[in-house]
Specification:
Blueprint (H helix, E strand, L loop, with lengths): L3 E7 L2 H10 L5 E8 L9 E2 L7 H11 L3 E4 L2 H5 L2 H7 L4 E2 L7 H4 L1 H10 L7 E4 L2 H11 L3 E5 L8 E4 L2 H12 L5 E5 L4 E10 L3 E9 L2 E3 L3 E4 L4 E4 L6 H21 L5 E11 L2 E8 L6 H8 L4 H10 L13 E9 L11 E2 L10 E5 L2 E4 L2 E4 L3 E9 L2 H12 L7 E3 L5 H9 L2
Parallel strand pairs: 1-2, 1-4, 2-3, 4-5
Antiparallel strand pairs: 6-9, 7-8, 7-9, 10-11, 10-15, 11-14, 12-13, 14-17, 15-16, 17-22, 17-23, 18-21, 19-22, 20-21
Helix pairs in contact: 1-10, 7-8
The chain binds adenosine monophosphate and glycine.
């Protein structure tokens, strides 16, 4: 088979991890990335195409004879980029616009859950603000209020009091927005990732994320401040149950409804006392969960992505390093609020080896120096025999990075580290 030239869409830590893994593929010719970042530039040629301009992406693919496109973030998928590429005869990893509704619309996903008896929180959707406020008063707290639509993981309020819930409803619905109001589920959260080619499902791995900005899971929600994989709380029995009660009915159901799901399906789960329940689906890799998955993946990622895209997922397998991978996100001071751009980062280049990888998110190079250009900036990743050791590896590397303009959580993996300590 001739080498294949690939275009990767995106420029975050997730895409650096994908680029890093794709670059190892013996099938790869040249790797391009739009827009990319300073870390991706080490393994790919970055191009400044506007990724919302589908015609420009298609023209670029034709000009460069790109054989395969991999879409990292959700926004281009929800906007139908995969459909437009397929219509132009360009193979792509990523779901159709119709299937991307699993992330793009909470109400769509709740309908799927109801139709196919998939365990999830009880919910109701409102477009009338007075009815929403009445419903909150009637149900009481704790209760969960969500905006319907893409919100980059930030459109959710887990309200402990009725007052907070009413405020959240007012904010979401003030300019005509729709709100989804949910039962508050209790348990530990875990993430589970699978590839689906529309029919076949390849289970990938489990992970746990840390969404709050500060140590001790305090402060506002972010896109994710750190993660590890595998997540020991997701036992094989829970993985099997999740496949049977959540993933398989979803993939079958989507196909039956004429919108087969092809791509990576990321299930956010609550491990309740009654079993795993779906919090939400994402239709892309998690960021930073992707970084820990890619650090562990031993199989040829490009081969797996292509099998997902061309319907031959039943012919491939995924092999994983047995170690735990843990990533610590270094973010610009101020994140997730307004943050400074352009501060200089030193010491990141010197870090590397078998067991430590620095994935870049919002970075660029200016006059030979590495500078911060985004909120989340570096994802410092370590591998070790358990979460404790992986965290030690990651934090040893974090300590070698000199970046006065940034901060990081110091307790990534804390739940599991406490369990490991207790179990000796
Ligand atoms: P989402 O953007 O849907 O992932 O929600 C963000 C976070 O809100 C989740 O990771 C959970 O911590 C929390 N959450 C969302 N829905 C619920 C629910 N029904 N019950 C309890 N917590 C929830
Ligand atoms: N880290 C959570 C997400 O990517 O949605």
């Amino acid at each position: 088979m001739p080498a294949i030239d690939v275009l990767l869409i995106g420029g975050g830590g997730r895409e650096h991890a994908l680029a890093w893994a794709i670059a190892k593929s013996p099938m790869l010719g040249k790797l391009w990335c739009a827009p990319g970042n300073a870390g991706i530039a080490d393994v790919a040629e970055c191009v400044g195409i506007d990724i919302t301009d589908h015609a420009a992406i298609i023209a670029f693919c034709k000009e460069k004879e790109i054989g395969f496109v991999v879409v990292g973030p959700e926004a281009p998928l929800v906007a139908g980029l995969a459909d437009d590429l397929r219509a132009s005869g360009i193979p792509v990893f990523g779901p159709s616009k119709a299937a991307a509704q699993l992330e793009g619309s909470k109400a769509f996903t709740k309908d799927i859950c109801e139709r196919f008896a998939i365990p999830t929180a009880a919910w109701a959707k409102f477009s009338d603000i007075a009815s929403a406020l009445d419903y909150v008063r009637e149900r009481g707290a704790p209760i969960v209020i969500k905006a319907d639509g893409l919100a980059a993981g930030k459109g959710v309020t887990v309200a402990e009091t009725v007052e907070d819930a009413l405020t959240a409803v007012n904010i979401i619905m003030a300019d005509g927005g729709e709100a989804v109001i949910e039962e508050c589920m209790v348990g530990e959260e875990a993430s589970f990732f699978v590839f689906s080619d529309g029919t076949n499902i390849l289970p990938l791995a489990t992970a746990q994320d840390h969404k709050r900005v500060h140590d001790g899971d305090k402060g506002p929600n972010t896109g994710g401040m750190g993660a590890y994989s595998p997540a020991p709380v997701m036992t094989q029995a829970l993985v099997d149950e999740t496949m049977k009660t959540i993933i398989e009915p979803t993939v079958r159901g989507m196909a039956d409804l004429g919108m087969p799901f092809t791509g990576v399906l990321f299930a956010g789960l609550m491990l309740t006392k009654d079993g795993p329940k779906l919090i939400e689906y994402n239709i892309r890799f998690g960021d930073p969960e992707c970084q820990v998955l890619m650090a562990r993946l031993q199989s040829d990622l490009l081969a797996l992505l292509m099998a997902t895209s061309d319907g031959t997922l039943d012919q491939v397998r995924a092999q994983w390093r047995s170690e735990t991978a843990l990533t610590v996100v270094m973010a610009a001071n101020g994140y997730p609020g307004a943050y400074d751009k352009g501060s200089i980062i030193s010491g990141a280049e010197a870090i590397g080896g078998e067991d430590t990888i620095v994935f870049h998110a919002g970075t660029a190079r200016k006059d030979g120096k590495l500078i911060a250009t985004g909120g989340r900036v570096l994802c410092v990743t370590g591998l070790g025999k358990n979460v404790t050791e992986a965290a030690n590896k990651a934090y040893d590397a974090v300590n070698k990075i000199d970046w006065p303009g940034g901060f990081n959580r110091t307790d990534i993996g804390w739940r599991e580290i406490a369990r490991e300590k207790k179990n000796g």
